[in-house]
Amino acid sequence: MAIKASDNFKTYQNPDGAVITTVNRPVFQAEGLLFKDIDGTGKLSPVNDWRLPPEERAAAYVKLLTVDEKIGQLFISDWRMGPKYPSPRLGGHVATPDESGVLDEAEVHQKTIFGEQNLPGTSTLIKEWFARHTIVRENAQPDDLCDYLNQLQAVAEECEHFVPVSVASNSRNENGEVVFGMNDAGGVFPTWPGTLGIAAAVKGSGIHVADQWAEAIRRSWEACNLRKGYMYMADCMTDPRWQRSYGTFGEDPQLICQIMEHIIPRIQGSEEGVTTDGVAVTTKHFPGGGARENGFDPHYAAGQWNVYATPGSLQKYHIPGFVSAVAKNTSSIMPYYSKPAAEKSAVQQDCEGKDVRFDPYGFAYNRVFIHDILRGQMGFKGYINSDTGIVHNMKWGVEMLDEPERIGFAVNNAGVDVISGLFDNAFGRMAYDRATNGYYDTHTLPEGITPDMVTLNDEVLDRAVSRTLTEMFRLGMFENTYRDPRNAKKVCADVTDWANADLAHRKSVVLLKNDGTLPLNAEGKKIYVQAFHKNPQQGAAATAALKDMLKDVTLVEDYHDADVAILFANPSSGDYFTATAGYLELDICEGKEVPNVDDFCRPMQQTHLETTLTGTHRIAEIAAAIHAKGGKVIANINFPLAWLVGNVERHADCLLAGFETLPAATLDVIFGRFAPTGKLPFTLPKGDEVLAVNADGVCISPNDVPGYDKDQYMPDSLKDENGKAYAYRDANGNYYELNFGLEY
């Protein structure tokens, strides 16, 4: 295809009906209207008739597709864009461009933490493997992204049976470091603060902040032809050491519900679900990933359990956000990797008040949670998209099954419709063939598991594929398949959306401490500025950027000469793909000695050193010098996690909190150009004593209860005169707990 699809698609407009765009697919006339030949029949079949309900069209289409075409639609994996955007995951891979120059036709051997696979070129993937679900992770410009997505659809149109390629992405409309699997890109689409910053802004200024954010997401994504988002997290943050706290809306279940109720209809296009100008939402991670065992993440074995130590915590804290998401017809739900720990949990109730049976299977394999609770009790009607890697690496609870059996167990037994990780078509075909080829006449299964639970059949394939096809029909992807890259560029540059995002950054700033210095009058004052990161090079670059923003004030290079120090702290701890030697360190510290943990996640006598912020000791030195001459110290901390802030707060006269907030927004609050309104979306722990883990691996503050409620479970010996034990209390007597935030 020498001409790019973006330059070659044709548009047909039905009067008061569907818009049709096509490159390769014929368009025919019937009953005075225009229809696209989707199924290859050239007739006004139920599949081709855009007037029929999406569910009816999907049900008709699965009957025409071959077994291998359906199996190809069970899997989703990330896919490279092409020559213009080399994938950082493939090292020195050199792309082979297709005729348009947009797609990569090279074969590649790819190895990730989720598994290893030999992969074909893009056209082979679409035409022969019939892959119809991929993930894009490159941070492409809007017009380039639109070109790429259009080109995928043009290849799909060349197949006998046209099924669009449903390309998903993790979030792209928040500021912050790009983190694989959490936010794949940033700075190209209108860019808000992190999700914790959205929560802080909503708490202080109102839900309209989330409304504006969601509407901008829909407009920018739809304009680029990106129609499916792995976003957002309805998880309630209950253990502060969970690395993925970063992507939540904090610890307040009511706020999480409110945000879900507002953003899902605005991203998808309506209260009833996705529309032809909407973007499908995949809400994650059911039934809530916050109930970590001392923070360990289930990307690695130490974090494979969800622990509900507190009676009623599942329904009180973890399920509500998903109830709201289901009520607003979220298109898809992603279960978490982890499995429920019956031995370590109190009895929990389901949505009908009955005791929940904790089968020891990861939630994507767990029929009790997916089939019985989510679908049966909560009424979820969309499709289930597993988290990435459940078949090969994060196979918690089903290690005794082989790969085809895990696929069958997830799809057939639990009710998963799309498995994320690798394009496991061959294993999927094995799971299908084993249902009839006598394989289990000679192969045994673990006790309690029968062949019909771990194999695939036509009924199961039709169920899964019809659900994902229904989403595509609702989105209008079969008819209006293409978008204009020039319009994508224009929409993503919309000044109103960028202005709303910019204002949201300012609204996300939380003022925690102020001795009256703020707002700062810089006139006649010498100011010292420094930014601290775990990585010293990042700290130096951030310091230079801050100085560039402060050209209109008098800056000094030596803090001994300063009247005021402005210090920005951006701590970092752990990696959610890799277990730390001990518990995830929340203290803002440098060279701190902490215990290792054993294979059962219990503290050991052996220790190691942790640093979350290089230069932590320097903060005290700077503050001492400034205070010695009667000066003031203003500090700002970035909070992707609920840090222990004592090593900064005790040296600061004024303290602010940001949540991937732009430094320029924080400076506006410091200098009085914007009065602070933000409120904390979570509670900051007092110190190590409230996160202590005993010799049996049990935390003194329950892992499954959010910070605002932990005091009722804390020992009296840790409580102060106000009955508070968990929240950090500053020198002014203020508790840094949920909803706290000062004004001036």
Task: Explain the overall architecture.
- There is one protein chain.
- The chain has 744 residues and is of the alpha/beta class.
- The protein is 28% helix and 15% strand.
- It is built from 19 helices and 24 strands.
- Strands 15-13-11-10-9-8-5-16 form an eight-stranded parallel sheet, sandwiched between helices. A six-stranded mixed sheet has the order 17-24-23-20-18-19. A two-stranded antiparallel ribbon has the order 1-2.
- The protein starts with 9 loop residues before the first strand and ends in a 74-residue tail after the last helix.
- The mean pLDDT is 96.
Strands, helices and their partners?
Elements: E1 10-13, E2 19-22, E3 27-30, E4 33-36, H1 54-62, H2 67-72, E5 75-78, E6 108-112, E7 115-119, H3 122-127, E8 133-135, H4 142-157, E9 166-170, H5 195-205, H6 208-224, E10 228-230, H7 253-268, E11 280-286, E12 305-306, H8 313-318, H9 320-327, E13 332-335, E14 339-340, H10 367-377, E15 383-384, H11 403-414, E16 419-420, H12 425-433, H13 458-475, H14 485-492, H15 495-508, E17 510-514, E18 526-533, H16 536-549, E19 554-555, E20 564-570, E21 592-597, E22 603-610, H17 616-628, E23 632-638, H18 646-649, E24 654-658, H19 663-670
Parallel strand pairs: 5-8, 5-16, 8-9, 9-10, 10-11, 11-13, 12-14, 13-15, 18-19, 18-20, 20-23, 23-24
Antiparallel strand pairs: 1-2, 3-4, 6-7, 17-24, 21-22
Helix pairs in contact: 1-13, 4-14, 5-15, 6-7, 6-14, 6-15, 7-9, 11-12, 15-19
